[in-house]
Design goal:
homodimer, about 160 residues, alpha+beta, four-stranded mixed beta sheet, 5 strands
Chain lengths: ~160, ~160
C-alpha cells in the first residue's frame, strides 16, 4: 500500500480508536493498526494498560496480538504497522519478533516524552553500556540449570529436522 | 528475598514450567516467575508464542501480564522477576514499564543466540545509530494529526490534577 490517502485512512482509524479509549480511561493516547500487503486492515487497537492492569498492553502490542489471533499465525511477514507514535523499545522488539518490516509512525519519541511517557528513557537504558542501576538491576544466577533446558531444546529440535 | 535456596526454588518452578510447555510445543524453552517483596510467588509463566499465535507471548511478558491481572495493578513496584534467560529488548522494556527493579536471569543472550533465538540481533538493531533497513523501516507520517491527540491528552490530564 503506497497510496498516501489510504495510509491516512488507516492512521485516522488508529487515532479515532486511541481517542475513544483515552477518553474512557482505558489507557494512554496511543493507537495502532496493522495492514496486510494489499493494504487490508487486519487489526486496529489502542493502549489498554489501565483497564487491563497490563503494563504490556500498548497499542502496537495489542494490534500485533489481535493480528496474530486473526491470522492464526505469530508470523506477520508482509504486514505494515501504522501507529500514532514512534514505538517504545518493548513495541519495537515485538514488531521485529513478528517479522513486520515497515512501520509508519506519527509522533516522535520526544513528543511522547513531552506529555510524560518514558519511551526515550527506556531507549537510553538499553543503549547505555553502563545502564543506571536505579532503573533496573540484572543479576545472573543458576545459569547451568537453565542451560540444561536449552540443551533439551536443541535435542528436541534435532529430532524434528 | 535474599535467600539463594528460595530463589533457586523459584527458578526451578520457572524451568519446570518452561520444560512442560516446550515439550507440548506451546513455545520456546523459556520460563519466568514474579515474586513480591516478601518472596511470595505472584505468577509463573512460560513462552506460548506458538500455541497463542502471539509473537509477544514470551515468558516474561506472560508472567508480567498474569501478575498485573492477579494484583489488579499495572504497577509491579517491589516485585522481582526470575527468568531462565536474559530478557530480550521487548521483555526488558516491559519490565521497566512495570516498575520491576530487579531481574535474576539464568542463560546469557549469547546462549539464546546459540540455540537460534534472535535476542542479540534485536539489541544490535536498537543500539545501532544506523540500524539495518532490511530488518525494519520506520517512516514518519501524519505527525500533526497525531500531535492533536497528544494535546487532547494534556488538556484531559490538566483537568484531573
Amino acid at each position: 500500500m503506497n497510496n498516501d490517502t489510504s495510509i491516512k485512512d488507516v492512521m485516522d482509524k488508529a487515532i479515532k480508536q486511541a481517542r475513544k479509549t483515552m477518553n474512557e480511561n482505558v489507557g494512554g493516547p496511543f493507537g495502532a493498526a496493522i495492514i496486510d500487503h494489499e493494504g487490508k486492515i487486519i487489526s486496529v487497537a489502542s493502549n489498554s494498560v489501565l483497564k487491563d492492569h497490563d503494563p504490556t498492553a500498548h497499542a502496537e502490542i495489542n494490534a500485533i496480538r489481535a493480528a496474530g489471533e486473526k491470522l492464526g499465525n505469530h508470523d506477520l511477514t508482509g504486514c505494515t504497522l501504522v501507529t500514532t507514535a514512534y514505538p517504545c523499545p518493548m513495541c519495537l522488539g515485538a514488531i521485529i519478533w513478528s517479522n513486520i518490516k515497515h512501520v509508519i509512525y506519527g509522533c516522535r519519541p520526544k513528543d511522547a516524552d513531552e506529555i510524560g511517557f518514558r519511551d526515550d528513557f527506556i531507549y537510553r537504558f538499553i543503549r547505555d553500556e553502563h545502564p543506571d542501576k536505579k532503573v533496573l538491576n540484572l543479576d545472573e544466577s543458576f545459569r547451568e540449570q537453565c542451560l540444561v533446558l536449552f540443551k533439551e531444546y536443541q535435542e528436541k529440535e534435532k529430532t524434528l529436522y
